[in-house]
Amino acid sequence: MARHTPNGKYWRKELETQPREKLEEYQLAALREELAFAYENSPHYHRSFDAAGVKPSDLKTLKDLAKFPFIDKKTQRDTQGVGSFLGELAAVPEEEVVFVSTSSGSTGVPTMSPFTQQDFDEWQDVESRWFWQAGMRPNDRYVHALNFSLYVGGPDVIGAQQLGALCIWGGTLPSERLIFILKAYQPTAIWTSPSYAWALGETCRKSGVDPKTDLAIKRIFVAGEMGGSIAATRDAIADLWGAEVFDFYGLSDIFGACAAHCEYHDGLHIAEDHIYVETIDLVTGELLPPGERGELVFTTLRKKARPIIRFRTGDIGRFVPDKCACGRTHGRIYVDGRKDDMFIVSAVNVYPSDIEYTVRELTEVTGEYVVRVYEENYTCKFEVTVENATAGKTSDADVAKRVTDSLKARCGVKPAKVIVLPDGSLERSTHKAKRIIDERVVTKVAPKDDYSI
Of 150, 231, 338, 445, which residue is the least packed, with the fewest Cβ within 10 Å? Predict the structure, then answer.
């Protein structure tokens, strides 16, 4: 794909700022084509549409999409490799596929995501859009510190290259090597996970490098965890580095970053020219009005290798189609966490994102934490492990009380126990941090593969 030359603050101004009515007209036409293509070319969709008694021609309005059946991670696993290498969800022969990524497979078999050349090129154009939206320009030097091994976020460095930035393909380098690159090349932007952005900044300081004054990083893109959309976490990383932090959200099931912050950090703009968003009730699966919290459901509008029709993401959040202060009309998603990470204590829904917000806001702890969820006397309980950041100035007992009281105020319920360890006791992650240890003997609602890329 030839390099696009943007004009002003938008990567594609007409596309990003078009009236809502025009955008929805496009979505309806694209959905009709996508449903027809999936029905005609994917064995699974042909079979599932017939079983549900629906045809692509039944889509008269956008709301009619609710007539069509859902898919989820289990669907992907059950159809993967069936009938062909690409499986029954695929809608093109293998000869047309130029790239595959896989999910992390945290609690199950990794699922493969195939791309045709058109899929891949359009995906990277969206990545360029997000980088431009977050302020990257051709005079930037950019370090891509994401895993390249089958990971859907790996190729997104191409989106930065197409924008014209000088790109350093870092990958998951040891921290010492990455710090050397940051010192020697003085890049202005980096992309990694929120946990690693924090851990890398701490490592810099401990090695005598001040991220604010000795390095040139001005923009940090984060993904793979909730932290980038939690103001306390984002502000802590920003203060550590003296840089602006932008959250990116993606799914291996679709492509790298499906949504991203603009300069206002008020929700993540989603690429509505590629993805149609629905929100459904967590229990009934019924469609919810825009703005209400539920499970996010995505449908691809243009993907050919493996169309995704009504995919239950397992992410809890809300979708707001209102125009943003930045002038963009594509709607924004606000993600609160994963359905299978949420737990209920004393009839109160507890979201790990609220725990992280609380821990990252307190000055008495380092910001690192682990949550253990367990059953006792047939009751769900949780404990939180943190690190004392006061170097002995505040006792562990006082730190534990401060954390307990703050969690009670934020979450509506307090932990059964707060464990306080010395600074540096908890493992620092170079990718997705595992912060929830669920020891309950319960059937999970959905397998947890990716929050995002």
Answer: 231
Give 40-63 pLDDT, tens digit per residue. 999 999 999 999 999 999 999 999
Residues 177 and 312 in one domain: yes
Please give the Cα distance from 305 to 38 (Å, whole number): 10
Report yes or no: 118 and 304 within 8 Å, Cβ to Cβ: yes
Residues 259, 190 within the same domain:
yes
The reply to whether 450 falls in a domain is no
Where in the sequence is the domain holding 196, given as residue range(s)? 1-338
* Total structural domains within the chain: 2
d(CA 4, CA 10): 12
How many angstroms separate the CA atoms of 328 and 322, rounded? 9
Strand pairing class (112-116; 311-320): unpaired
> Is 447 a member of any domain?
no
Edge-to-edge, what's the strand order for the sheet holding 141-144?
166-168, 141-144, 189-192, 219-222, 244-251, 255-260, 268-270, 332-338, 311-320, 294-300, 275-280
Cβ pair 233, 357 in contact under 8 A: yes
φ and ψ at 245, to 5 degrees? -110, 130
pLDDT digits (tens, 9 = 90+) for 76-130: 989 999 999 999 999 999 999 999 998 765 445 678 999 999 999 999 999 999 9
Number of residues that this document lists for the chain? 453
Six-digit token pair at 210?
């001040």
Q: Do residues 17 and 9 touch, judged by C-beta distance below 8 A?
A: no
- The last residue of one of the domains, among 303, 338, 373, is 338
pLDDT > 90: what percent of the chain?
A: 71
Residue type, 417: K
Give the H or E element holding residue 343. Answer: strand 343-345
Domain boundary (338, 356, 380) is at 338
- Residue 35, both tokens: 């449903």
The H-assigned helical ranges of 367-447 are 396-411
